[in-house]
């Protein structure tokens, strides 16, 4: 495993981390969840990502349960939560968003579900148009001063919104956001590569990126249709399929087909190749992996070896072929 600093902070995260979205508290049984966390840990993963909204808290409960069961040393791993969407169906106004109340309640609930005394990373899962950014920055700063959170950050905030949070923090001498959690993969590059470009040096911002495989599309598993047991083929995930594949449907699938053909030319599996491509961006502190089976995770962890194996010409081809 490789370890990278979270932006300019002193926290060293594994370059490949592991997240719970869709899988934990829904798709997979407890035994698989336990095997996945154990395999990740055995391969040097030290960051496990979660959110209040994943399975309405069930993902955090399951992750907390298996981490406790595996007796991972608390000083050896980092765990995150994210606040915004709430953890109940049809949340009331105080059960969602980034008000001081919900940010505080959600933190306390995540601590209980994950069975920890503090969250290593705590993200604002989306910007909240109904809460002044000052209120959220003060709330995050208070949680840090209380020892309940170590680093706070944002997820899918615009560069302008991130700047605003830094301005408030600087003005009042509060803890500023350390990291952002954006989507980043071969099919979705603009925000990380263009919009955020000035922020890395300006604020020492780190990024922990999500959906490196575009929900599996870059593995080639959807090249010839949508298998029922795979994420984008499952009946209850129709909304997600629309979101990931977009319109017109053929275009993104065609890009994935071209990419997987190139991977075959290099004689490597497409999944670790797509993940390694994300890792080549020096601003990426950690690539958050998702997996529904241990075999997938083990294959994806091979991304680290590919960094050395392929030369610049190959990486250029990868970039061009998926464009
Ligand atoms: N901040 C945010 O807004 C946000 C949003 C989304 C995710 N996240 C975080 O980022 C993490 C990763 O995102 P993601 O799950 O979308 O990542 P991803 O790598 O794009 O997709 C993971 C899914 O692809 C399939 N897959 C993975 N490896 C495979 C392989 N080698 N071969 C075939 N299929 C494979 C599996 O689904 P199936 O087996 O079911 O097909 C797996 O669950 C999440 O767990 C979450 O922690 C954050």
From TrEMBL:
Family membership noted in the UniProt record: Belongs to the shaker potassium channel beta subunit family.
InterPro entries per UniProt: K_chnl_volt-dep_bsu_KCNAB-rel, NAD(P)_OxRdtase_dom_sf, NADP_OxRdtase_dom
Name of this protein: Alcohol dehydrogenase
Keyword Oxidoreductase: yes
Keywords tagged on the record: NADP, Oxidoreductase
Gene source species: Lysobacter concretionis Ko07 = DSM 16239
GO molecular function, one term: oxidoreductase activity
Domain of life: Bacteria
Domain NADP-dependent oxidoreductase: 16-312
Record SUPFAM superfamilies: NAD(P)-linked oxidoreductase (SSF51430)
């Amino acid at each position: 495993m490789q370890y990278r600093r979270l932006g300019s902070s002193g926290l060293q995260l594994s370059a490949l981390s592991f997240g719970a979205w869709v899988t934990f508290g829904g798709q997979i049984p407890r035994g698989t969840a336990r095997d996945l966390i154990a395999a990740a840990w055995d391969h040097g993963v030290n960051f496990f990502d979660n959110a209040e909204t994943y399975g309405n808290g069930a993902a955090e409960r399951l992750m907390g349960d298996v981490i406790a069961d595996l007796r991972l040393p608390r000083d050896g791993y980092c765990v995150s939560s994210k606040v915004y969407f709430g953890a109940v169906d049809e949340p009331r106004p105080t059960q969602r968003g980034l008000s001081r109340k919900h940010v505080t309640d959600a933190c306390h609930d995540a601590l209980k579900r994950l069975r920890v005394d503090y969250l290593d990373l705590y993200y604002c899962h989306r910007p909240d148009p109904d809460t002044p950014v000052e209120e959220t920055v003060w709330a995050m700063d208070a949680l840090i001063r209380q020892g309940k959170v170590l680093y706070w950050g944002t997820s899918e905030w615009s560069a302008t919104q991130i700047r605003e949070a830094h301005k408030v923090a600087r003005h009042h001498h509060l803890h500023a956001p350390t990291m952002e959690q954006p989507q980043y993969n071969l099919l979705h590059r603009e925000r990380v590569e263009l919009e955020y470009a000035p922020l890395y040096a300006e604020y020492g911002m780190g990024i922990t990126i999500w959906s490196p495989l575009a929900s599996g599309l870059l593995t080639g598993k959807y090249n010839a249709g949508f298998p029922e047991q795979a994420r984008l083929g499952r009946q209850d995930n129709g909304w997600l399929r629309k979101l990931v594949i977009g319109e017109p449907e053929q275009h993104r699938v065609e890009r994935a087909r071209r990419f997987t053909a190139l991977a075959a030319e290099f004689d490597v599996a497409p999944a670790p190749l797509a993940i390694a491509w994300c890792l080549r961006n020096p601003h990426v502190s950690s690539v958050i992996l998702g997996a529904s089976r241990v075999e997938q995770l083990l294959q994806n962890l091979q991304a680290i070896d590919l960094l050395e194996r392929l030369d610049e010409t190959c990486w250029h081809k990868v970039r061009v072929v998926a464009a």
